[in-house]
């Protein structure tokens, strides 16, 4: 199993380019099969979740052609199977997007129940509610969720809770339903807007994405398009917090600053200087960071996917900070690992009380999930001594060439696959 080995204590300096948003790319790839014409998608992140979904799409008959490291052509006219159940698809949460896409196009679908990181309950009851409102029968059996309908008809759907997955899934199915659909209390995340824009480029009629009411006029068929995925706000935020934690000076390129406002606000509160341009953000960290309070909320609030990275920064900030996690109940699983590095954090229910320490010290830690894994890498970069991060396959689900991007900013980090290589790294930097 591969690991990252890190010699910390070096301020990050320089420029880093951000890739396409994984959370937008996954539903967009699923939606690409909704036409029988060829769709071209670029600015695609080359990460494990993307490759698993492309493999699943290929296995049901769609033609998938990688035209470059970050681009793909998909033609859904060859699909011969609406049952998606390979061993890999169960490992990614985004598998459920194939339900909305295939239901919209073929009026039936069967997909293995989703996996992903164990950060808490991610029920699919709102997805089921939406599909039923459109006229589909929904059944769960043998680890599969099955949906089918004689006809899909537009409906007025109120989501009891803001859900990105349910908003996108219902939007995809409704794009090819008869009549009008209104989704109220819809998620407003940038990747919801990106999926709506993509579907509209294919001929869908979707208005209001980015607000809490989305209106969809169903169309009979969709057509080919070429589309570029938005930059990844979570990858961008990860590098912004890494700049803060290492007391560095990092310019993050290829971003949409508007998507990063909640992250930027917290960096300003802890004392960083943040400069924004049309497509970049620069973070300059002071020698001493200040404490603050954070509550995770749906967009445009502070993202739950940035919470562990924020926790790492607050762990080495002066004074007592608090983080209230209001989205997922298992999002503090990184705290035990961070404590091994000297953090002073107490978790009570969904609140972490963080007493800032002067610095972290290197230790051997394990990534419990994708974002927590990235946060532990940041802790290692800021720590005194050597840190080894195990289980980096979680991190590679959503970050492309993370260690190479950090190395380009001056970090001493390597991806290794044995104890011997870890020892070699230690000898090299001693």
TrEMBL record:
EC number, UniProt record: 2.5.1.7
Domain Enolpyruvate transferase residues, every copy: 7-405
Enzyme superclass (EC): transferase
Primary localisation category: cytoplasm
Superkingdom of this protein's organism: Bacteria
Residues where phosphoenolpyruvate binds: 22-23
Record-linked InterPro entries: Enolpyruvate_Tfrase_dom (IPR001986), Enolpyruvate_Tfrase_sf (IPR036968), MurA_subfamily (IPR050068), RNA3'P_cycl/enolpyr_Trfase_a/b (IPR013792), UDP_GlcNAc_COvinyl_MurA (IPR005750)
Stored Pfam families: EPSP_synthase
Binding-site residues for UDP-N-acetyl-alpha-D-glucosamine, renumbered to this chain: 93, 122-126, 161-164, 305, 327
UniProt-annotated location(s): Cytoplasm
Active-site residues from the entry: 117
Catalytic activity, reaction form: phosphoenolpyruvate + UDP-N-acetyl-alpha-D-glucosamine = UDP-N-acetyl-3-O-(1-carboxyvinyl)-alpha-D-glucosamine + phosphate
Example GO molecular function: UDP-N-acetylglucosamine 1-carboxyvinyltransferase activity
Key words, A-Z: Cell cycle, Cell division, Cell shape, Cell wall biogenesis/degradation, Cytoplasm, Peptidoglycan synthesis, Pyruvate, Transferase
Pathway in which the depicted protein is active: Cell wall biogenesis; peptidoglycan biosynthesis
SUPFAM superfamilies membership: EPT/RTPC-like
Residues with PTM 2-(S-cysteinyl)pyruvic acid O-phosphothioketal: 117
Recorded family membership: Belongs to the EPSP synthase family. MurA subfamily.
Function: Cell wall formation. Adds enolpyruvyl to UDP-N-acetylglucosamine.
NCBIfam families: murA (TIGR01072), PRK09369.1 (NF006873), PRK12830.1 (NF009470)
PANTHER family referenced in this protein's UniProt entry, alphabetically: UDP-N-ACETYLGLUCOSAMINE 1-CARBOXYVINYLTRANSFERASE, UDP-N-ACETYLGLUCOSAMINE 1-CARBOXYVINYLTRANSFERASE 2
Protein name, entry field: UDP-N-acetylglucosamine 1-carboxyvinyltransferase
